[in-house]
Write a structure and sequence with these properties.
By secondary structure, the protein is α+β, with helices and mostly antiparallel strands. The protein has 12 helices and 13 strands. Strands 5-4-6-3-1-13 form a 6-stranded mixed beta sheet, sandwiched between helices. It has a 4-stranded antiparallel beta sheet with strand order 10-11-9-12. Bound molecules: alpha-D-galactopyranose.
Length: 391
């Protein structure tokens, strides 16, 4: 990613005016996978990898998009009466514009330049970061301010209703509301948040398997449907439930025989994972990283066996990570079927971790993996050269 000052200079020359620049971070998720769309709990943290959107106004209602991070340029009209996705990366920009207008914000024509160092398709929320940075830029261009959580909701709607992936709100929320030095415990029903400090001597190592199996987005929507089926059956026995968030492990055990075995396993993952998130928050609060690590391992096994969203490469990466001394926990992260494993590694062990895991993964799969050391970061906002220099 180019230095901010260089970006500003280059764009000033190309566009003839100084742009405003906004950033939105990617995220890791310590624990709480596939719980967000079940009204449950998640424990993500925004990270230093980010997407930047530079913007300058143009007359009219046309939006022009250039990028170094993505392949080709694109443009669209804000007056298009029926905007539809084109299976192009710029769909996320169109989706965000569509969602903002749907919310009643009258946008203005603009020229955008997009840059990112979040690896796409790795489970680090590159699409949410693109949506959130775009929303910040388009809002500023229109002279409108929205609170971070409102921006998260707009971007969530963009992804669900325009792109057609029925994801939960975790990624957009973390990108908007992250806090340096902290993870955030989010109640995905009430959107209440509490921040929990991440110990400084623990490194968040993200190991990219470099595989992304094709079924990812289709299976994601199927899982969501399976959870809804579970709620429909269980509500015959447990009146008043609205989501799996409302079901206890005891209720599932009691009425589980009434549910199809596959749906039962899906429900069990979500219900147990919600409990693990709350225990993980307690463990972090009391500095008990050992317990947090154990909960992460349980989460991975549950995603593998009950939710069935892991894959051999993710399982191998986890196994290799856990084999290294100084690793407290490791688990697959994000939607699944490829992408990344998150490992919590003692700072003194992080170099050895990098070498050992990369060598062994190459030896076992023939694939060169990438390992990113992530640090927690603040949520999205306007960038100035001073921020970049840390002043
Ligand atoms: C993707 C989605 C999130 C969440 C995770 C699984 O990252 O975007 O909303 O559902 O998968 O936890």
């Amino acid at each position: 990613m180019v230095e901010l000052a260089d970006l500003l200079n280059a764009l000033q020359q190309a566009w003839g005016s100084a742009p405003d620049v906004f950033q939105a971070p990617g995220r890791v998720n310590l624990i709480g996978e596939h719980t967000d769309y079940n009204d449950g709990f998640v424990l993500p943290a925004a990270i230093q990898l980010q997407t930047r959107v530079a913007i300058t106004p143009v007359p009219g209602r046309q939006v022009f998009i250039e990028s170094t991070a993505y392949s080709d340029n694109a443009e669209f009209s804000l007056d298009d009466p029926q905007p539809v996705p084109r299976k192009h990366w710029s769909d996320y920009v169109r989706a965000t514009a569509w969602s903002l207008e749907h919310q009643g914000v009258r946008l203005k024509g603009a020229r955008l330049f997009i840059d990112s160092n979040i690896p796409p398709g790795a489970g680090l929320s590159s699409s949410a970061a693109l949506e959130v940075a775009t929303a910040q830029a388009l809002l500023s261009n229109a002279g409108v301010t929205l609170a971070p959580t409102e921006i998260a909701k707009v971007c969530h709607r963009a992804e669900n209703e325009f792109i057609g992936i029925r994801s939960g709100i975790m990624d957009q929320f973390a990108s908007c509301n992250g806090r340096r030095g902290h993870a955030l415990l989010l109640d995905c029903r009430s959107l209440e948040v509490s921040y929990v400090a991440v110990p400084r001597d623990i490194h968040l190592m993200v190991c990219n398997t470099m595989v992304r199996h094709e079924l990812a987005s289709g299976e994601y929507n199927t899982r969501r449907q399976e959870c809804e089926e579970g709620v429909a059956v269980l509500s015959r026995f447990v009146p008043g439930i609205r989501a799996l968030r409302d079901v206890t492990p005891e209720q599932l055990a009691r009425f589980g025989a009434e549910i199809d075995p596959v749906i039962h396993r899906r429900c069990r993952h979500v219900i147990d994972e919600n409990r693990r998130v709350l225990l993980a928050k307690q463990a972090l609060d009391s500095g008990d990283i050992g317990t947090l690590g154990t909960l992460m391992q349980e989460s991975h096994q549950s995603l593998r066996l009950d939710y069935e969203v892991s894959c051999p490469e993710l399982d191998l990466m986890c196994e290799l990570a856990l084999g290294v001394k100084g690793v407290h926990g490791a688990r697959m992260m994000g939607g699944g079927f490829g992408g990344c494993v998150l490992a919590l590694v003692e700072s003194s062990a992080s170099e050895a971790f990098r070498e050992t895991v990369a060598d062994q993964y190459r030896h076992r799969t023939g694939i060169d993996c990438e390992i990113y050391e992530c640090s927690t970061a603040d949520g999205a906002g306007r960038l100035s050269v001073g921020d970049q220099l840390g002043v």
